[in-house]
Amino acid sequence: MKSGWQGNPIWPAELSAPVAERLVQCKDQLAHFAVEQVLEGHAPPPSELPFDDYLRLDEEFLGTLLPHQVERVLQIGAEAEADIEQLLTEEQRREFREVGLRSLLARLDYFGEASFMRKLNGLPIATDAAREDYSEYFCEKPFEFADIGTKGKVTLCCALWLPEVAGDYASGTFMEVWNSERAQAIRASILDGSYSHCVEQHCPHLQNKTLLKRDEVTNPVHLDIIENNRTVLEHGPKSVVLSYDKSCNLACRTCRVEPIMLTGEDRSEAERVQDWATGEHLKDARELNVTLSGDAFGSPVFFTFLREFDASQYPDLRITLCTNGIGLTERNWNRICNEAVDVVYISMDAATTETYAVNRGGNFEKLMDNLHFVGTLMLKGDIKGFTLSFVVQANNYHEMPAFAALGQSVNASSVMFIQIGNTGVFTKEEYEPRAIHLPSHPEHQQLLEVLKDPRLGLPIVDLRNFDGLREQPEGVKASAPPPTQESLAKAVEMIRTHSEDLAEAGIDGTAVVDAGRLSNSKAQIRSALDVVIAGANTEEERDSLGAVRQTLAFFQTGVAEGRAALDAIAFEEETWGNIVRAEMAEHAK
After folding, report:
1. Which of 190, 236, 336, 525 could bridge to 553 as Cys pair (CB 3.0-4.6 Å)?
2. Are 470 and 451 in contact (CB under 8 A)?
3. How many CB atoms lie within 10 A of CB 583?
4. Mean pLDDT of 403-413
5. How far apart are CA 189 and CA 186, in angstroms?
6. In this predicted structure, which of 4-18, 115-129, 438-452, 549-563 has the lowest mean pLDDT?
7. Are 128 and 167 in contact (CB under 8 A)?
8. DSSP code of residue 216
9. What would you measure as the largest C-alpha separation in the chain, in angstroms?
10. Helix axes 539-554, 485-505, angle to 10 degrees
């Protein structure tokens, strides 16, 4: 049996399996050691050093360790070598020594990142028996999404939710990495229903079971993938995230140990990765996210990209800006390709000056000025989505309701709350006191009380992982202040345009329309319908409009029923509701 190793030595079939098994065991031992060192603060986090370097005795990794740590790592390798040699003949041993253990470790595919991330976050290692049954659900993410990180490492979902790497800049062209063996294995785990590469404790869609069920899938591309078990894709990703430069003007403790600003060869490498990441495959993309690794304005690499990007070459591609907001001034907005920007995503982690100073270290007053500026862009329709995010931790959870109100005051379309995770930037002693979402945290019950606040039930609030923890007190209904006439008029216009798009696309309630063919994004339609819902006169109207929001905003089945629900709503007087109803009814004919 050919091993595929250097020199193509021939290994008997009865030896191939035990040799591979011992190599995997060696990588398991190295991963366990790496977790211990990271959590104790004695080794760099995997966010700074690629995970694979821990698992192949890489010289760069060894150079970061103390002498006694190097001794232990090499001992693990030596024990593996000795055990493997016991399995081989003398001739095979010579071949094995020529190839070398490090070479074999580097070449052996190993899906251990998910277990690595679980250990870092104090989560149990999931087994097939312990996992929920997700076989009736379909997740499109690994078939449509690529996050391109440091050294061009490609993940097919949020790295906290699905940490496995499909490949990297050195592995070949982007499309070769997109369809690598690892990428195929990840997609296969979705199709077989095991979701075995996902960290289910972190993924809110698995936790809350909000994925689309397979028998509800109507998108023809997704149906083809499911029915034909496709793991190799001819098209590139629809959604691309650029995360290969961690440069930022702030040093938030949740994502880095110290300030990061790439210079010299590191910056040159990031620029080379950028050329690789933004090549011909972008013709298939509809969303480009800049950036989840640092700051769109704080990184010279990304800021240059945004200023030089020729939107006319990719007319169907829309950009999401991810930033801490400090650099998003009106002047900088006018310096970038803002005509291609659809969504602005600003991370804050605080609702007050004092907490912001601790968690972010930036100028809160300047940030608020910039938030109001972005809010005006949303009102004018220059952007279609405006999200504020908040990483919940022990020093800020009490500000969650105030943050929801702040988002509403600046006309954000979404306010998102995220559990704090450990990507290796915290030791165990640093992480656990921050992780308020853990039931073992001494203030966890206080968090549950905060989650009952009616402001966290506002239509713009996305609680993600916290949704299952929120217990709505009996008799309390979340309510939003009445929308302004200006925002109401804008919402009506968006829905009017959306109705025209649906009519032109011939939507009959059984098909799904490609969002790229619509004038308004999902986020914008959802925001407009939220305004409509906030202005409803009765709870019955609000519930009916909520059904419309689901069918019209997400382009799923039931569009016709959604129109009917909207048309059936009775308004007592001639208001904007009549305008919306009449407009939808007109285009539904």
Report:
1. 525
2. yes
3. 19
4. 94
5. 5
6. 549-563
7. no
8. G
9. 93
10. 50
**In which band, very low, low, confident or very high, does the pLDDT at 112 lie, cut at 50, 70 and 90?**
low
Can you give the three-state secondary structure of 140-194, one letter per residue?
CHHHHEEEECHHHCEECCCCCCCCCCCECHHHCCHHHHHCCHHHHHHHHHHHCCC
pLDDT confidence of residue 560: 40
Other C-beta atoms lying within 10 Å of the C-beta of residue 307: 11
The residue count for the chain: 589
Give the model confidence (pLDDT) of 186-204 as tens digits: 999 999 998 988 877 778 7
pLDDT tens per residue, range 254-281: 888 788 999 999 999 999 999 999 988 8
Single-letter amino acid code for the residue at 278? T
> Are the beta carbons of 293 and 322 closer than 8 angstroms?
no
Whether residue 382 has pLDDT greater than 50 = yes
User: Would you say 524 and 385 are in contact if contact means Cβ atoms under 8 Å apart?
Assistant: yes
CA distance readout (Å), 27 to 31, 52, 95, 119, 490? 6, 10, 21, 15, 57
CA distance 579 to 560: 18
Q: Tell me: the pLDDT tens digits for 31-58?
A: 778 788 877 777 766 655 555 665 667 7
pLDDT at 589 over 90: no
Q: Say which amino acid occupies 320.
A: T
Q: Work out the number of other CB atoms within 10 angstroms of the CB of residue 470.
A: 15
pTM confidence score: 0.67
90 neighbors 73 (Cβ within 8 angstroms): no
SS3 501: helix
Residue 112 DSSP SS3? coil
Which pair of tokens denotes residue 45?
Answer: 């986090």
pLDDT surpassing 50 at residue 512: no
Rounded to 5 degrees, what are φ and ψ at 5?
-85, 170
Burial of 503 (0-12, 13-18, 19+ CB in 10 A): middle
The per-residue DSSP string of 413-453 comes to SEEEEEE---SSSS-HHHHTTT-TTSTTSTTHHHHHHHTT-
Q: Are 224 and 392 spatial neighbours (Cβ–Cβ below 8 Å)?
A: no
H/E run at residue 68 = helix 67-86
* 146 DSSP β-pair partners: 240
Please tell me the distance from the alpha carbon of residue 25 to that of residue 36, in angstroms, as a whole number.
17
Burial 212-249 (b: 16+ CB within 10 A, else e): bebeebebebbeebbeeebbebeebbbbbbbbbbbbbb
pLDDT computed for residue 45 by the predictor: 66
Please say whether the beta carbons of 290 and 327 come within 8 A: no
Contacts of 557 (CB under 8 A, 6+ apart): 216, 218, 509, 510, 512, 551
Instruction: Name residues whose C-beta falls within 8 Å of residue 348's C-beta, 6 or more positions apart in sequence.
Output: 324, 325, 356, 360, 367, 388, 389, 390, 403
